[in-house]
Amino acid sequence: MDIPQIGFGTWTLKGKECIEAVKEAILLGYRHIDTAQMYGNEIEVGKAIKESNINRKDIFITTKICAPNTTYELTKKAVFQSLENLGLDYIDLVLIHEPYSTFTEMYKALEELKNKGIIRFIGVSNFNKQEILKLLKNCAIKPYVNQIEMHIFYQQENYRSFLHELGIRVVAWSPLCANPKEIIDNLILTDISRKYYKSNVQIALKFLLQNDVVIIPKTIHKDRMKENLNIMDFSLSNEDIEKIKLLDQNKSKFGWYY
């Protein structure tokens, strides 16, 4: 099973709200759930998956290892903790959440667990070009993905192309940017959206999909879950793609990395 191109993000979701949101997402058809130890909701995500009664092999689960588990041994222990939290026998994708100074030894631990079948795919998150190149010089298994900030206002076209040329999948966190209202109110998107009878949000997400980017939007609202998922029945024209490219501000909306 390859990584589904539309996932469901769980950042900031806690407790019962998290359980219900993930269950609703799975019921609507999401088959890729993204969590992290940093989010503090792996247990709730695991409960939601179990209560959904969907066959385990049909759900793609991503989690991420973060500080203070930044040594070889602590990374291995953290993965087993995630397995326990999620109530799973294996995890589909485990990422190093940030480029810690010890990321090469952390990655070796992930490689070992992948070779044992405990993890199906391994990768990284928030790594820049130099960090990716350093990792490639010090690893035996190429990272499956790099999960990074990406949306229509921060398209990272050159870096995206660089990763694709290496055969590394790009996963966009915050694909609707820090303030989705910027997308909703954008007149260029509004003009494009009328052509396809879609919303501005759907146009923004479709732009990423057509650039072979995996997206993991997050919402607790059922209607928005449906909206984010309902983008596979149309394709943007080359002309519209070029218009959307002009929206790129080439600057992070979060400003905490790169």
Number of helices: 11
Outline: globular
Mean pLDDT: 96
Can you tell me the CATH topology? TIM Barrel
Integer-rounded radius of gyration: 18 Å
Spatial order of the strands forming the largest sheet:
1-2-3-4-5-6-7-8
The CATH superfamily is identified as NADP-dependent oxidoreductase domain
Amino-to-carboxy terminus distance = 32 Å
Write structural notes for this entry.
With 258 residues, the protein is of the alpha/beta class. It has a single domain (8-245), classed as Alpha-Beta Barrel (TIM Barrel). The chain contains 11 helices and 8 strands. The protein has helices spanning 15-28, 42-52, 72-86, 103-115, 129-137, 157-166, 181-184, 187-196, 200-209, 222-229, 238-245, and strands at residues 8-9, 32-34, 60-65, 91-96, 119-125, 145-149, 169-173, 213-215. An 8-stranded parallel beta sheet has the order 1-2-3-4-5-6-7-8. α2 (42-52) links the parallel β2 (32-34) and β3. α2 packs parallel to α3. The chain is globular, with a radius of gyration of 18 Å.
What are the key terms here?
8 strands; globular; 11 helices; TIM Barrel; eight-stranded parallel sheet; alpha/beta; 258 residues; 43% helix
What's the layout of helices and strands?
Blueprint: E1 8-9, H1 15-28, E2 32-34, H2 42-52, E3 60-65, H3 72-86, E4 91-96, H4 103-115, E5 119-125, H5 129-137, E6 145-149, H6 157-166, E7 169-173, H7 181-184, H8 187-196, H9 200-209, E8 213-215, H10 222-229, H11 238-245
Parallel strand pairs: 1-2, 2-3, 3-4, 4-5, 5-6, 6-7, 7-8
Helix pairs in contact: 1-2, 1-10, 2-3, 3-4, 8-9
